[in-house]
């Protein structure tokens, strides 16, 4: 009987040690993961002068916006309309298809081609300058 109790105690001790090590490692993984997250600041704590600053006065933002407007103007009217309805008016592809009297698949295809054209035009514009 004494050997069995001693064996149980040894198993219990091993299990306890295994649990401690497992929890320790899990805690370390959790802390590493949490430390990599970007800290956020509640809007209430942001100073009012920062909220009142004009973002477009930075210059680079205006430049990027102008390049995007130029690339958008190079698209066909149909692609411009589809992108406007999808992103500005936040319509679903099915709603856009009903408005344009076409299939939703055509809306998906035109959206893909329009975004691809925008990327190509923006990259080409960036290389030239």
UniProtKB/TrEMBL annotation:
GO molecular function, a single term: DNA binding
Origin: domain of life: Bacteria
GO biological process terms held by the UniProt record: DNA-templated transcription initiation
Short name of any one Pfam family annotated for the protein: Sigma70_r4_2
Residues annotated as domain RNA polymerase sigma factor 70 region 4 type: 66-118
Coiled coil: none
Cited InterPro entries: RNA_pol_sigma70_r4_t2 (IPR013249), RNA_pol_sigma_r3/r4-like (IPR013324), WH-like_DNA-bd_sf (IPR036388)
Annotated protein name in UniProt: Sigma-70 family RNA polymerase sigma factor
């Amino acid at each position: 009987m004494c050997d069995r109790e001693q064996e149980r105690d040894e198993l219990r001790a091993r299990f306890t040690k295994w649990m401690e090590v497992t929890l320790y490692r899990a805690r370390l993984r959790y802390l590493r993961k949490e430390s990599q997250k970007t800290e956020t600041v509640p809007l209430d704590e942001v100073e009012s002068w920062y909220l009142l600053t004009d973002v477009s006065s930075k210059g680079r933002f205006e430049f990027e916006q102008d390049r995007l407007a130029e690339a958008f103007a190079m698209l066909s009217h149909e692609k411009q309309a589809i992108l406007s309805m999808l992103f500005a008016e936040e319509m679903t592809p099915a709603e856009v298809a009903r408005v344009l009297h076409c299939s939703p698949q055509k809306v998906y295809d035109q959206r893909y081609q329009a975004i691809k054209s925008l990327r190509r035009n923006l990259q080409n514009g960036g290389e030239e300058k």
